[in-house]
Write a structure and sequence with these properties.
The complex is a heterotrimer of chains A (182), B (574) and C (182). Chain A has 182 residues and is mainly β. Chain A has helices at residues 169-173, 176-181; strands at residues 5-7, 10-12, 18-20, 24-26, 31-35, 38-39, 44-46, 63-67, 70-71, 76-77, 81-84, 87-90, 93-95, 99-101, 106-107, 111-112, 116-118, 123-124, 129-130, 134-136, 141-142, 147-148, 152-155, 160-164. The longest helix of chain C has 18 residues, at 155-172. The chains are: A mainly beta (182), B alpha+beta (574), C alpha/beta (182).
Chain lengths: 182, 574, 182
């Protein structure tokens, strides 16, 4: 990610990602940002936790992020890891477009769909799968391996679906406006 | 749940017109002095029933044929498909009918904390036996002594295990085996009533067994009733009196259970059934239950939430069962009055697309509110008696420009009315153009009718504050009431709720299938009541006599303007 | 074995540390304080994990995993002991006096000053343990502070998994033990 222009706190990449200089990005060679994604200060992104076997192999993506995502301050993105057939390995984490991750949230999901809002301080357990159009309320703890279906509002510890979101969820969860703010 | 966020805006669905007001289109002409009786005509957000007709814009649909918003209460839903929220497999409706509305694969949630359970191998190198383990609270099926030979078809295995466990525990019970009192003998009326009033304790008898036995008995009972009923000619006095006799009696041997007591007819037939009831009673021996609860201790008992989600409402933790995931549905929605489809989702489970999606946001003007001066106003701490200025922005989703008329009662409904004044109640909002125009011409935005910053702080009367391509902002002044400190107030009284009638008039192309070529334009209009929950009134403030009558402040700032604007406001609401 | 570290001029800020040669410690982990920090065999210390021995000595057992952004702080001069197989997840703060073998402190959980945590406990995300509290063996603190006894019998299996995880981590995180030993 060669910096194109230097403008204050954020480094802007060719595809319009704005990455705070104060963020902690590890293993950036294993991270793909789709573009127009904002990474705020103190964010930790563990791209170094790549899949075991064939180390350093090209295309060993640990974290793939779509477009128009927003990672607020102090949030943590970490690929989930597990022991399978006696060997421990990390597995890639995929985030769709328009994913908002609130301040201080910790995400270890295997997959997060499009138009997903993860509230501040929420914890998404290992290998959770969050489908499209989901709102996770602040401080929710989603247990590992949980699957959240589309159009769900999730709250509680552990997080459970508390409500269905209306048909307009996609519009209210899209983040194009937010990108322009930064 | 979450604390309410201010400001928030709700829109009243007119499906229950009698809530707070008459049909919004025939509303009062506003600017006369409002006397208390007249206030009834404005939408009253504090009316107890209005809660049921207020919705955020996102939750509303729009019926083109009725030209009206549709709330979740005035749509008809039809199930498009069933799916398991955990494995996201679609379940055919035939399966739902035969197997019930729960996932029959391996999807279970924890009976303790309701997180998803996962099938986990307990043996070395991923070999059996397998258990259902909660990755949150570490509850496992081993807590209730169940493990599985293979990691697939857990539902079937679980059913077998539970049956086996029940059989063994039932054998050890001294109470008569439920089989002996089940299907062969029908239920007595008292038995039926008694069990409904006080279900036999599941802790005494394994729950599934009671359920199954109960079901068998009910089935036999109704079969017998059916057979007898069909034997008589239907409606005959004999069958009627017999049926009546089942559920009421004036015999000497009365026995009541609780308040709504059911009584038993003493007949030769019922005597045997009476005995059966006795057996039911022995099963739900309270001593036994108490003893068990004593042994388990407080930590061994279930919480209310844990109990109610289980079908057999267990008292003790070791009677909990893994909860098979409840299915979810995708539903299409129709207008309740004209039956047109408003929402039709794609049937694929993972898809978020809709084939038809008529949401209110793409038909009616959207209003939003913000503070004029960010430093002066705290939404959670509105100062009573002082004028707060807000910016009310109306956004037009249509491809035609609209004329907006806003109307509000000068004093909000309620015991402690806030004073509200819209500086410019009548204005135009430009049309939404497509995305390309927006992308190509940011200069198109430079079309403000009023320069920004002009008339700062107070705003100019009858002029808009700011406008963009498809939005216009006007200034709204609110004076929150001074709340008495010596009176016990409901939480609702602390919140400033402003009802605003939003009426839009526009010209649109006439859309008719029968006319060839769309000729001419027709005038359309739509209006709705919205409620602005602006914020909370500050708790305490030095008793200020001026503040008691907020109108005085109002008049100092805008009395002349009120006169000026009275003309247009008057006209607009007729 | 590991030589006793001396406070040389170059590493004046660094606390004395006894680190097992089999340890995995990231270059960007932070060891601060003045008291001795002792870390056992096969323990993994992630990047940006903070271990602070200002108030007292810190002893960490074998096969522990300390994730990124965790804080291990000695509460007082008696110090802190993490027994073997203790896993501390992201954002967790541990100021306990002792954490028993096989206990798991999940994301964002806080163990108060001087608390004593038994063996095989589990603290689900965002839960807290009060200062000075004693938590019995096999306790699970979940949800909004509910407690129960773990009867799943999965503790042995969990330990195996921790061992495997450390092996897996060694494959992806480069260790720089020397940096902290000087």
């Amino acid at each position: 990610m060669p910096p194109k222009q230097v403008k204050g706190e954020y480094i802007e990449t060719d595809t319009g990602n704005k990455v705070s200089r104060k963020s902690n990005i590890l293993g950036s060679q294993n991270i793909i940002l789709g573009g127009k994604t904002i990474i705020q200060a103190d964010c930790t992104i563990r791209g170094d936790l790549r899949r075991a076997g064939a180390p350093g192999q090209h295309g060993n993506v640990a974290i793939a992020v779509g477009r128009y995502c927003f990672f607020a301050r102090s949030s943590v993105l970490k690929p989930p890891g597990k022991t399978h057939r006696g060997a421990f390995s990390f597995y890639p984490m995929k985030l769709g477009d328009h994913v908002f991750i609130g301040e201080g949230a910790v995400v270890e999901a295997a997959m997060v769909g499009n138009f997903v809002h993860i509230g501040a301080g929420a914890v998404i357990g290992k290998f959770a799968i969050i489908k499209d159009c989901v709102r996770i309320e602040e401080g929710t703890v989603v247990a590992p391996h949980t699957v959240i279906p589309p159009f769900s509002r999730v709250a509680g510890r552990p997080g459970v679906v508390v409500e269905e979101l209306p048909e307009t969820a996609q519009e209210s969860l899209e983040l194009k406006q937010l990108y322009r703010v930064i | 749940m979450n604390a309410p966020v201010y400001p928030s805006i709700f829109i009243a669905c007119p499906c229950s017109d009698n809530v707070g007001q008459k049909a919004p289109t025939r509303s009062r002409t506003s600017n006369d002095e409002i006397d208390p009786e007249e206030e009834g005509q404005a939408f009253n957000p504090r009316a107890p029933r209005s809660t049921f007709s207020l919705f955020p814009l996102e939750n509303l649909l729009f019926c083109e044929d009725c030209n009206q918003v549709r709330c979740p209460r005035c749509v008809l839903e039809e199930i498009v498909c069933y799916f398991c929220p955990s494995c996201l497999f679609e379940v055919p409706s035939s399966t739902v009918k035969s197997e019930g509305n729960r996932c029959t694969r391996n999807c279970f949630s924890c009976p303790i904390c309701f997180a998803a359970l996962s099938v986990t191998a307990t043996g070395e190198e991923q070999t059996g036996p397998f258990i259902l383990l909660c990755s949150h609270c570490l509850w496992s099926s081993q807590d209730i002594g169940i493990d599985f030979e293979k990691p697939t078809s857990i539902t079937t295995q679980l059913a077998q295990k539970l049956k086996a466990a029940n059989a063994s525990s039932a054998a050890s019970l001294t109470a008569p085996s439920p089989d002996s009192l089940s299907a062969a003998r029908p239920l007595s009326p008292l038995g039926a009533g008694g069990t409904y009033l006080r279900p036999p304790s599941p802790s005494a008898l394994p729950p599934d067994q009671t359920d199954e036995a109960e079901f068998g008995r009910l089935k036999a009972h109704y079969n017998q009733q059916k057979a007898l009923a069909s034997g008589d000619d239907y409606g005959g006095s004999g069958s009627l009196s017999r049926l009546m006799g089942l559920y009421s009696s004036n015999s000497g041997r009365l026995r009541s259970y609780g308040s709504g007591a059911l009584r038993e007819t003493v007949t030769a037939r019922n005597k045997s059934e009476w005995r059966e009831l006795e057996q039911l009673r022995t099963v739900e021996d309270e001593e036994d239950v108490i003893e068990k609860m004593k042994n388990a201790g407080f930590h061994g008992t279930t919480s209310q939430t844990q109990r109610i989600v289980q079908t057999h409402s267990p008292r003790l933790l070791d009677e909990l069962r893994p909860l098979a995931a409840l299915l979810r549905t995708k539903r299409s929605k129709r207008c309740r009055s004209c039956r047109h489809i408003l929402v039709k989702p794609e049937s694929k489970v993972g898809s978020i697309r809709h084939r038809i999606r008529l949401v209110a946001g793409s038909y009616i003007p959207q209003i939003s509110i913000s503070r004029l001066d960010h430093t002066a106003v705290n939404y959670n701490n509105l100062q009573p008696g002082s004028t707060h200025q807000f910016l009310l922005t109306v956004t037009n989703p249509l491809y035609d420009p609209i004329n907006i008329t806003l109307a509000t009662p000068e004093k909000t409904p309620g015991q402690y009315p806030a004073t509200v004044y819209i500086l410019c109640p009548e204005f135009e909002v430009g049309a939404t153009t497509d995305v390309w125009d927006e992308a190509l011409g940011p200069e198109a935005k430079a079309n403000p009718k009023v320069a920004k910053g002009k008339g700062k702080k107070t705003g100019l009367h009858a002029t808009i504050w700011d406008s963009g391509r498809n939005w216009t902002t006007v200034v709204l002044e609110i004076v929150p009431p001074l709340l008495p400190e010596d009176v016990e107030l409901g939480d609702d009284d602390h919140i400033v709720k402003v009802p605003i009638l939003v009426r839009s008039v526009y010209e649109a192309d006439i859309e008719r299938e029968d006319t060839i070529g769309k000729e001419g334009r027709e005038k359309k209009e739509h209006s709705y009541w919205s409620v602005l929950e602006v914020g909370r009134i500050a708790k305490k403030r030095g008793a200020d006599e001026e503040g008691v009558r907020p109108m005085s402040i109002m008049s100092t700032t805008s009395s002349t303007a009120a006169d000026e604007t009275s003309g247009p406001r008057d006209r607009s609401l007729r | 074995m590991a030589p006793k570290s001396r406070l040389s001029e170059s590493a004046a800020a660094r606390p004395p540390a006894i680190l097992s040669p089999t340890i995995l410690i990231s270059d960007v982990a932070q060891l601060t304080g003045t008291h001795l920090i002792r870390v056992g065999n096969h323990t993994a210390v992630h990047p940006r994990c903070r271990i602070n021995s200002s108030a007292g000595p810190i002893t960490i057992g074998d096969y522990c995993i300390l994730n990124e952004r965790t804080q291990i702080i000695a509460p007082d001069e008696r110090g802190i002991v993490l027994e073997n197989y203790v896993v501390v997840e992201t954002n967790a703060v541990v100021e306990a006096q002792r954490v028993g073998e096989g206990s798991v402190i999940e994301v964002g959980a806080k163990i108060g000053k001087g608390a004593v945590v038994g063996k095989n406990c589990k603290f689900t995300p965002l839960t807290t343990v009060a200062d000075g509290e004693v938590v019995e063996d096999d306790t699970v603190v979940w949800g909004f502070g509910s407690r129960r006894k773990d009867m799943s019998g999965s503790k042995e299996a969990r330990r195996k998994l921790v061992e495997r995880q450390v092996e897996g981590l060694k494959a992806v995180i480069p260790s720089n033990r020397a940096k902290f030993m000087s």
